[in-house]
Structure formats: C-alpha cells, structure tokens
Amino acid sequence: MSSFPRASAFPVMASRAQSRPFVAYTTAALTGLTVRESSAVVHTVITGISRELIAGHPVHLPGVGTFPPRPTVPRLGVHPGTSLLLVVPARKKVAFSAAGSLTGG
C-alpha cells in the first residue's frame, strides 16, 4: 500500500491552472503509483500531445475537449519601442473546444 494521501487530499483549485507536479501527485494518489512513476507517465502523455499538435494533428481528449491546431494569417503589428509597423508572420496556434460534459450540453 502506498503512503500517499488519498485523492481527496489534493483539492481541485478552479481559480488557477494546475501544474505538472500537481497532476503527478494526484495521479500517484489515484493509481497507487509512486510520484516518480506517475511523473514519468504525465511527462510522456504531455510530450505525446505536444508532438501531435506540432505535427498539425488535432488532439481529442474524451470528457475534456478537442485541441485543433489552426493557422494564423500574417498581420501588421507595431513595435512598442519605436512605433514602427512590422509584419507579424503567419504561424500555428492551438484552439480549444470543450466537450459537452464541460459545457453542460
């Protein structure tokens, strides 16, 4: 049996984003893995999600939502120090659409 506290000892804090260590400790408490093992699992999952997004593939997490990468168009911006106009190049961003379970639908 693990000496980690129960999952209820890790309250969900809706007021701020959760850190990777928080997720690792919660995973350890819920699964019985050690913190080191659960940290490796969390790292592997986040790395896999990041690689898929960089490759341009959407990521679907059931019960959470979808993270589709979307291209942006080039636009004009202003350099704050000199007020010169400059072109901000096109790039990719990650959008998020929540699952129905999160939106109440």
TrEMBL record:
Keywords tagged on the record: DNA-binding
Keyword Iron-sulfur in annotation: no
Record Pfam families: Bac_DNA_binding
Keyword Flavoprotein in record: no
Signal peptide (residue range): none
UniProt cross-references to InterPro entries, sorted A to Z: Hist_DNA-bd (IPR000119), IHF-like_DNA-bd_dom_sf (IPR010992)
Molecular-function GO term, any one: DNA binding
The protein's name in its UniProt record: DNA-binding protein HU-beta
Organism: Deinococcus enclensis
